[in-house]
TrEMBL record:
Residue span(s) of domain YjeF C-terminal: 237-496
SUPFAM superfamilies: Ribokinase-like, YjeF N-terminal domain-like
Free-text cofactor note: Binds 1 potassium ion per subunit.
Protein name as annotated: Bifunctional NAD(P)H-hydrate repair enzyme
Cofactor: K(+)
Example GO molecular function: ATP binding
Assigned keywords, A-Z: ATP-binding, Isomerase, Lyase, Metal-binding, Multifunctional enzyme, NAD, NADP, Nucleotide-binding, Potassium
Function per UniProt: Bifunctional enzyme that catalyzes the epimerization of the S- and R-forms of NAD(P)HX and the dehydration of the S-form of NAD(P)HX at the expense of ADP, which is converted to AMP. This allows the repair of both epimers of NAD(P)HX, a damaged form of NAD(P)H that is a result of enzymatic or heat-dependent hydration.
Domain YjeF N-terminal: 12-215
Record keyword tRNA-binding present: no
Enzyme nomenclature, EC number: 4.2.1.136, 5.1.99.6
Protein family: In the N-terminal section; belongs to the NnrE/AIBP family.
Length: 496
């Protein structure tokens, strides 16, 4: 799988300390490397600014800001450096002194406000180096006013944050009646490590703010341990593999091409389970059968295609069907309104996969089925119902699921503008690719069918999730602004 490690604030600090104490890096060297990385990564951006203002705080993040100010100035840009207070780290003091010698006096917050009042609209590119990723306390009144000024002012045409937007704290979201105050960064430069706490940073509707990773020599491959890494990864898009994996081979027969069982579709909701089955079969699945509590299911299925199999049944009767022994994957839930009691404590036979979606997502207190390959696919509301907790950020959801998944031996794929897969072995994967075209009825049913298709090819659950989400990402290219789930499926079939 294409993936990149994600580090918490604590883990990033541990790597920073390791690089300095064990590998012999000087902190000044790391700050200088960070400044050069940011400078070169944004050369086109600097050229758009009449003036660049860098606001530096008292910690390592502020030191990075001073190092960047020095580099920009030496490269001929018009730079103004401001400080919230003197820097506290030795490396930060080094660059603070360097800037005062090269740029001249470093402005105070009062100086910042005076120059801001005289500045022209859209004339300043602001670099936010006030607070680092480790700051989780309440903001002082002075910093709150400063950040609100930065956000509201027309003087700043672009706001770039180093490592993390100052004041951003995903764990505080929704916990107070007062809105969270943080810099509304237009982009973020993550230095040395990709930051877990930045995942899901958003202040505009349906828009994840761009984050860019700049390597500065941290030992993120050679010195990982339980202290410096907790097995969190970005899942990176793999659009070509998503398509090629689905193409049938010449030697395939109906079972090797993938087999599946679908259960769902209460009366009046049969379309949901039919859509899941269509996603599976039209994307190359070899053979499948639909079971449903609806008495209309057979007529609806056969009306669509005489070659298909369907049966009115309870979920407990499925395991007695001869087809059950031959199939690899079961999808339960699309078109159901409540968790089937027959699933409570049921044991999934070895070698089979079970996807629980929609109505088959249990409520808090329901007993889960047992097995080694069980995937639940809740959206946020269903996750809250399933765990009895409220989650306002992907980080909060992770904190719940990293205990829930091992305890229940299940995988959970949280579906949101940021998708999170947590595995029972402690590994987790983040998919951060908001797609407003999927915000339509039926796309969850579609995803279940696509997941079943990949799982039926003997891929692991993490591999199947990555490929399914990569395939669905192709829907972004549709010209239709609000495509239906059937239109999305048709476009994916054309790719395959």
């Amino acid at each position: 799988m294409k993936q990149s490690p994600l580090f918490t604030n604590k883990e990033s600090k541990a790597l920073d300390s390791l690089a300095i104490k064990e590998l012999g890096f000087r902190e000044e060297t790391l700050m200088g490397m960070a400044a050069l990385s940011v400078f070169h990564a944004n050369e086109d951006l600097w050229k758009t600014a009449e003036s660049i203002w860098i606001l530096s705080g008292t910690g390592g993040n502020g030191g990075d800001g001073y190092a960047l100010a020095h580099t920009l100035y030496q490269e001929g840009y018009k730079v103004r450096s401001f400080s919230t207070a003197p820097n506290k780290s030795e490396a930060g003091k080094f660059y603070e002194t360097l800037v005062s010698k090269t740029l001249g006096a470093i402005g105070s917050i009062d100086d910042f406000y005076k120059e801001w009042e005289e500045a022209k609209e859209d004339s300043v590119l602001l670099v936010d180096a006030i607070l680092g990723t480790g700051f989780q306390n309440e903001l002082s009144e002075e910093l709150t006013e400063l950040i609100e000024t930065i956000n509201d002012s027309d003087v700043f045409f672009y706001r770039l944050s180093l490592d993390s937007p100052s004041g951003w704290n995903p764990y505080a979201l929704g916990k107070s009646e007062e809105p969270n105050v943080f810099v509304y960064a237009d982009s973020i430069e993550e230095l040395g490590t990709r930051k877990w706490e930045n995942v899901g940073f958003i202040y505009e509707k349906d828009a994840i703010i761009p984050r860019y990773y700049e390597s500065i020599g941290f030992p993120i491959r050679t010195h990982l341990s339980n202290v410096t890494f907790s097995n969190r990864y970005y899942l990176e898009a793999d659009p070509e593999s998503a398509i090629q994996t689905l193409k049938r081979k010449n030697k395939d027969h109906k079972y090797s091409a993938g087999s599946a069982i679908f259960y769902g579709g209460e009366t009046g909701m049969e379309g949901a389970i039919l859509l899941s089955e269509q996603a599976f079969s039209r994307l190359g699945g070899g053979i499948n059968k639909i079971f449903s509590p609806s008495t209309k299911i057979s007529s609806l299925v056969l009306k669509e295609d005489l070659s298909k199999m369907a049966q009115t049944s309870s979920i407990s009767e499925i395991s007695n069907d001869p087809f059950f022994a031959k199939t690899k994957t079961l999808v339960v839930g699309p078109g159901l309104t409540k968790y089937p009691k027959d699933l409570e404590g049921w044991t999934l036979p070895e070698g089979k996969n079970l996807i629980l979606d929609a109505g088959a997502i249990p409520s808090f207190g329901n007993k889960l089925p047992r097995g080694n390959q069980i995937l639940l696919t809740p959206h946020v509301g269903e996750l809250n119902r399933m765990t009895g907790k409220t989650h306002n950020s992907v980080q909060a959801a992770y904190d719940t699921l990293i205990e829930f998944c091992p305890q229940n031996n299940v995988y959970v794929l949280l579906k949101s503008f940021v998708s999170l897969l947590v595995c029972p072995d402690g590994f987790s994967y983040v998919w951060e690719s908001p797609n407003p075209k999927l915000a339509t009825m039926g796309t969850g049913d579609l995803l279940s069918g696509i997941l079943a298709r990949y799982l039926s090819l003997d891929l692991t659950i993490p591999e199947s999730v990555q490929l399914a989400l990569s395939l669905l990402d192709h829907s972004k290219q549709l010209e239709e602004p609000y495509p239906s789930a059937h239109q999305i499926l048709k476009s994916l079939v054309e790719l395959v």
